[in-house]
Each structure stands twice: as C-alpha cells, then as structure tokens.
Amino acid sequence: MLQSPSVMYTYYMRNSQAFWHLCDDSLNISDYEDNTICINGVDANAMFATCRNALCSKRSVFEELTTKPHTLESAKEMIKALQEYVDNNDTTTTEEEDAN
Length: 100
What we know:
Helix content: 25-40%
Number of domains: 1
C-alpha cells in the first residue's frame, strides 16, 4: 500500500526543464536562471515509470503539449527508441513466429 511521504518540499521554478543522469541516478530540475534541484536515488526503472505515468495516465501530458514541429519530431524519436527497446528485449513470440 502506498504511504504518504514523511517529508514533502514544494518548489516553483518558472520555465524549468528536467533530465535524468545515469552516473548518480539523479533527477535534475533546472531553470534558465541557474537554479537546480537534484534528487539522487532515482534509478532507471523509477525514471521509466515516471515517463510512463506522464504519458499514459488518465490526465497525461498530451492534454497540455504543444504540436509544434520540434515536439512532433521528439515524439517520433521517442517512438523509435521505445520500439528498438521492445524489439531487443521482448522474448514473447507468437505461434506463427515459432513455426518459422
């Protein structure tokens, strides 16, 4: 069962961006005024779940996302990366594939 965190900090950073860093399993949020919040301990599985929640939840980011050309190009890049991951790691096969 999920429990509420024992500590919660709330910050507002105007025009912020977020990125994940492998070397220290950190989620980093920064603005364009050189302010940064770094949360260590966010491993690849947690970051993947975060991305999934942002894209696939009932109220996903798509309700707010712009449809500018660079956004659509980024979406295509994400689809390609996800498809490559699935193709390289999906071990399930269909009966037709087994027959070949």
